[in-house]
């Protein structure tokens, strides 16, 4: 549209806070296409890498599963390329700064690793580059601000799509990339911060021109009386509230309320953004982008509901749960969920649980500690020992270990105590999620667990022993290191650990080391203590020394995994990085729940 002096009181300023005057829409669309293409290329590269890694692991597992039991697997002890350990040490496994990765930052929560930081840096710099790719040669600063307003608003909406994809639990793309939910949540937060930044800049650019033309009173009047501006302002404020409430101290103070408010504010942002674009008077391409992002979010919610209904209800009844307060000084509950059908649940998974007798409007994620499949209450078989012909007639029992922190978990523990140490209630089960990793191709596996982090590691140990006996795993040495404050924590997993140690070949294959950090040394009377594969040490572990000893006696390719408090995760990460100097093939996986 040609701008004339007859159209506005001040033609140098007036046009540039209305409509698309000064907005370079073709460039906006071009940059969005480049942005989405770059993200797609990044995802495709990650998927291709994971496929190549899967093929390598499959080949190694096939070659070693039937190999002689005494084989040292020396040919697999070192990676194909000598530079790979250095890459792992300085980039892939390195924290963003010196040491801290899993220990939470007071403002940003869990920090990205150096590798994820590099990806986020590329993402942030590309967004900043697109924002600043405007005509600074224009002598009219208000025209420049108008172009900047259009660019930032367009990019904010374009980022809705990756923002929604990263929060989806049922997203096949993140599954193929083997991104666990902890990583997805971390990436979601940083994408969300970029959306907020771009939205804030969008509003500031509009307000700066409007104030220069008509003053602050006109801005206030437009917010109250102009529906187009009102919708944008409500969305703008909602985004500000989202980023404020998502700060770790605020979020941790009342997590359950945060989740509900976060969802309501996110819906508000979607609705107001759509209204804002619809009332612009132009056929903006932003509208289908917003609708697409909202549809992806809605579809993922439907998939969650379908998964929940499928595993919670059947012709044989519905899921129920027994909640027990475990005896001792540890303030821990065991939730045993009885599902009405057989559910395949891999090690290292978690699920969302709803208990009808305890805040039934809330669901909470818990790591799955143990799984058993049953024909009837009298017949029980291990999860890995069933044939395909038997599976249709089974039900599944899923167990969780839940530490009483505050909020829901503390209320749950108190209710169990008040009910005589246990109670039964209706329940729902949504999951399992994650569990992308198989450790069966590694000759040497070291599992570190801290406190309730044992829930992530216990079933890995069982699966490896079972598959070793079935000659479908390369494992020849498994070490489980568990760090707890009190020996009473053994009550959490006593029957399950005893079951694992009674498996054929378990005493020769598996070593369990329990470190008790807050008790004086004594001789505990324990049913598995007499086994040479089980040791209790009343001291703090030297993680670096433990891992050095394992590397010195490494069998084939090694994988070190950790699940526990942030401090333990960071210590294990540092030890794995230091061990890369050996030149051996040592992989590292971290499992945590930072949300």
Automatic annotation (TrEMBL):
It is a multi-pass membrane protein. Its main location: membrane. The chain crosses the membrane at residues 34-56, 115-133, 153-169, 190-208, 228-247, 254-275. GO terms for molecular function: ferric-chelate reductase activity. It holds the Pfam family Ferric_reduct. InterPro entries: FAD-bd_8, FAD-bd_FR_type, Fe3_Rdtase_TM_dom, Fe_red_NAD-bd_6, Ferric/Cupric_Reductase, FNR_nucleotide-bd. It is found in: Membrane. Residues 306-439 form the FAD-binding FR-type domain. One of its GO terms (biological process) is intracellular iron ion homeostasis. Belongs to the ferric reductase (FRE) family. This is Ferric reductase transmembrane component 3-like protein 1. It comes from Colletotrichum sojae.
């Amino acid at each position: 549209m040609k701008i004339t002096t007859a159209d506005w009181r001040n033609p140098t300023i007036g046009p540039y806070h209305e409509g698309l005057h000064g907005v370079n829409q073709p460039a906006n669309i071009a940059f969005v296409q480049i942005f989405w293409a770059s993200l797609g290329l990044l995802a495709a590269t990650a998927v291709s890498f994971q496929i190549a890694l899967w093929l390598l692991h499959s080949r190694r597992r096939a070659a070693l599963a039937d190999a002689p039991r005494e084989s040292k697997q020396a040919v697999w002890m070192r990676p194909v390329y000598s530079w790979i350990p250095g890459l792992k040490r300085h980039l892939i496994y390195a924290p963003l700064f010196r040491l801290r990765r899993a220990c939470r930052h007071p403002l940003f929560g869990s920090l990205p690793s150096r590798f994820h930081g590099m990806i986020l840096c590329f993402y942030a710099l590309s967004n900043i580059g697109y924002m600043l790719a405007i005509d600074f040669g224009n002598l009219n600063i208000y025209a420049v601000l108008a172009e900047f307003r259009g660019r930032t608003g367009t990019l904010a909406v374009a980022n809705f799509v990756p923002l929604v994809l990263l929060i989806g639990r049922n997203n096949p793309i993140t599954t193929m990339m083997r991104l666990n939910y902890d990583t997805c949540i971390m990436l979601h937060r940083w994408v969300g911060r970029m959306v907020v930044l771009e939205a804030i800049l969008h509003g500031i650019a509009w307000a700066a021109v409007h104030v220069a033309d008509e003053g602050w009173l006109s801005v206030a009047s437009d917010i109250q009386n102009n529906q187009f501006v009102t919708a944008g302002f409500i969305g703008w404020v909602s985004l500000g509230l989202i980023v404020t409430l998502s700060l770790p101290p605020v979020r941790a103070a009342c997590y359950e309320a945060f989740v509900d408010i976060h969802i309501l504010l996110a819906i508000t942002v979607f609705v107001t953004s759509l209204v804002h674009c619809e009332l612009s008077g132009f056929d903006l391409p932003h509208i289908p982008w917003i609708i697409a992002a909202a549809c992806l979010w809605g579809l993922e919610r439907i998939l969650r509901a379908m998964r929940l209904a499928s595993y919670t209800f059947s012709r044989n009844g519905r899921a129920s749960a027994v909640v027990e307060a475990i005896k001792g000084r540890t303030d821990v509950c065991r939730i045993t969920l009885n599902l009405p059908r057989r559910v395949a649940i891999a090690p290292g998974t978690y699920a969302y649980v709803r208990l009808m007798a305890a805040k039934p409007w809330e669901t909470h994620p818990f790591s799955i500690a143990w799984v058993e499949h049953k024909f009837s209450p009298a017949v029980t078989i291990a999860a890995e020992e069933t044939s395909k012909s038997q599976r249709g007639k089974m039900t599944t029992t899923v167990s969780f270990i839940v530490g009483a922190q505050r909020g829901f978990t503390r209320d749950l523990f108190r209710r169990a105590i008040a009910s005589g140490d246990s109670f039964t209630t209706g329940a729902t089960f949504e999951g399992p999620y994650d569990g992308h990793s198989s450790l069966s191709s590694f000759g040497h596996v070291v599992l570190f667990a801290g406190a309730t982090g044992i829930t992530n590691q216990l079933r890995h140990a069982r699966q490896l022993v079972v598959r070793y006996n079935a000659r479908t795993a390369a494992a020849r040495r498994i070490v489980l290191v568990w760090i707890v404050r009190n020996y009473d924590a053994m009550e959490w997993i006593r029957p399950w650990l005893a079951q694992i140690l009674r498996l054929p070949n378990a005493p020769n294959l598996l070593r369990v080391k329990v470190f008790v950090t807050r008790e004086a040394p004594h001789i505990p009377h324990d049913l598995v203590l007499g086994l040479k594969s089980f040791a209790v040490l009343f001291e703090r572990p030297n993680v670096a020394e433990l891992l050095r000893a394992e590397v010195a006696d490494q069998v084939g390719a090694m994988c070190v995994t950790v699940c526990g408090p942030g401090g333990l995760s960071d210590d294990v990460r540092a030890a794995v990085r230091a061990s890369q100097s050996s030149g051996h093939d040592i992989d590292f996986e971290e499992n945590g729940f930072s949300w």
